[in-house]
Design goal:
PC_trans; 10 helices; transmembrane; globular; single chain; phospholipid metabolism; nucleotidyltransferase; mainly alpha
Length: about 280
Amino acid sequence: MKKISETGIRIVTAAVVAPFVILCFVNYYSFIGLVSAVVLFSNYEYLKFSLKERNHQSVRIALSGVIPAIIVAYGILLDRFARVESAAPRPELIFAVGVISITSIVITTVADVRSAKEIIANSVFSLIYIGFDLAFFYHIYLGFGSSMALMSLTSVWLFDTGAYFLGKKFGHIRISPSYSPKKSLEGVIGGYVTSLLFMLLFVSLSKLTGLYNGPDLGILQFMVLAVVVAVFGTIGDIAESSFKRYHGVKDSGSLLPGHGGMLDRIDGVLFVTPMFYIFLTLLT
């Protein structure tokens, strides 16, 4: 029997996962479930490789549950209070509760001071790096529509795909030899063109089918958003590569065959999402 290539495995995995992900954008609360599930798996992977030398598996599992719970609560509170006057409770306070909860769990269950400090530091970083960054999807969804939230995610997927294949074929100029040696300028440019074309096609088809509920943007604005995807998607990818190299791991996990772990799949998304929201706010 002929063995399936790595590229073939990547395509099969994407074909299985993508429809489920897209369906979760139909309703805001199913969208919250999607974001929290991604945070759950990504956070667990990050804590697993960043704390791999510490024998505190039960604490890691507990913290991996606390952080997505914070993200669920934030999504619900944001929906209820974001459009209310300033006298209403601030949903962002839930992240302060998250830091307090993480610290409380660790200092009451871990006796070793050095271990406790390392666990708290990595967990709070994960809350911000993974949870807080992905929570900007809520802002995009509520402020600019589900179409724009879906486009912001899928444009990163298409950027990664274009950068991977075009970089593999034409890449010569290495942009990060220390952290990500295979990443090339040609790949980034190819990914940019791919994501821009996808954005224009996505909006055109969405409007034709009557499913588009985002802002009315021109081609220059989409060019700017594609730059945001290319630049910050690349930085996010390189950042996660630096973490993995520091901890001596190749992939964050093996949840998604051909892609590695969940964190490997969303590394660019983590940096693109808040910047995409910022630029959408500036451009509309």
